[in-house]
Amino acid sequence: MTRKMLIDATHAEETRVVVVDGNKVEEFDFESLNKRQLAGNIYLAKVTRVEPSLQAAFVEYGGNRHGFLAFSEIHPDYYQIPKADREALLAEEAEYARQAEEEAAPEKPKSRGRSRSRSRSKAAAEGTPAAEEAVITAEAPPPAEPETIGADFEDVPPPSAASGEIDIEVVEEPAEALAAAAPGPEPEAEPEAEAESEYEAVGGDDLAEERAAPRKPRQRRYKIQEVIKVRQILLVQVVKEERGNKGAALTTYLSLAGRYCVLMPNTARGGGISRKITNATDRKKLKDISSSITVPEGAGLIIRTAGANRTKTEIKRDYEYLLRQWEVIRDLTLKSIAPCLIYEEGSLIKRAIRDLYSRDIEEVLVDGERGYREAKDYMRMLMPSHAKNVKHYSDPLPLFSRFQVESYLTGMFNPVVQLKSGGYIVIDVTEALVAIDVNSGRATREASIEDTALKTNMEAAEEAARQMRLRDLAGLIVIDFIDMDERRNNAAVEKKLKEKLKSDRARIQVGRI
User: Fold this and answer.
1) Which of 5, 108, 115, 327 is the most interior residue, by most CB within 10 Å?
2) Mean per-residue pLDDT, 248-269
3) Is 172 left (phi over 0), alpha (psi -120 to 50) or beta?
4) Within 13 Å of residue 51, how many CA atoms lie on the same side as its CB?
5) Which domain holds residue 473?
6) The pLDDT value given to residue 145
7) How far from the centroid of its chain's Cα atoms is residue 210's Cα?
């Protein structure tokens, strides 16, 4: 099927972007004057409160609420300590980054999860109908803050919002929900060897991955109240949007994203390659390219997934563009008074072309003269050879109506999503978690209950992954599949879910069923 990017920029108040594969919406994002993205923006901020109990600071940066800045996200350059001590800290961080880069082995991903509990293994061995689970975790940049009692929670983001983790636990309904039938064979016990790695990381945008990279734990030689003072000026970047009455999460470790690489001007890490590039030949080629690029001392460069098949000239041009951008940010910072916006990540149109556009997208249709000019100019600057793919849509019939997109977008607000087989899923979003319930509905065409359950679950796995992208679901997500007796069917559903989640830009961890 042909993939297209559709941009509706006919109204100055709102811009909408979708990526369609044939007649199916795969990606959706929008931006309005009242709700503009803050993540990625860089601000000159002022510390308003240092909270020793949280080992964090609250800063005024120009948002609706004060931002939250964890101590681990404060660069040693801002510490009010002797120069020699600061240089020692910077040297430690540089060495830690170098070791972490050397130890990274994308060909052999490490398990990040916990092993299956003995009680569950025992239950399986005895044939007890235990709930089958799969957990998906998508990690966003900021770290979780420590829990406190008696603090002013008005400014403190909750751990779930800060850590941005998405856990998707999959449990299965009894097959009796489909029809009355004799009980099937007892489930076999899974070998302990298989239970060792219960979670597998899939998907993930490399930019978010780099912004989420763990910082070197601070040695207990300093506390935030000793090195950071009220009214101190910091250059910060938003890594987590404001939500409800919670302020944005911030960091002083900056990153500027281009099409092919990410420049980290104050993180000593050079010659890095995205973990999503696993081909050894590609990694060696990109390593040679990054080694030939001169990066300023104390800065870092990461080549993104989109740069895997690009030439040295293209990657270097992208890096030089980011370097010029950083020089502009530095100059503006010196002339500004906090709180002040220093750098804006870019409009939705620019971000969509930078992050969503790929070689398999045949054309970019833009409805609206202003949006068309912006998209054309940015594509010409970013990828000159692809500028011809950006086309102005001038048909009287609205763009989204022409491609039947409006009906899909309207359905995003409906908790019930129909499946082709006649089954359906119900999505229920709560404060604690997101529950996705799979039901067979009118799906009765298969020869047996097991076949009906398998087909419905396979469709549900694909649709659930798609709905998570479209609805931007986060947090703990529990998927209640229909129960199946055969282990190979469970494995097939698990494989389908992982396969469909790979295209998600969030970094996701999938548990075993």
Assistant:
1) 5
2) 89
3) beta
4) 22
5) 118-205+415-511
6) 40
7) 10
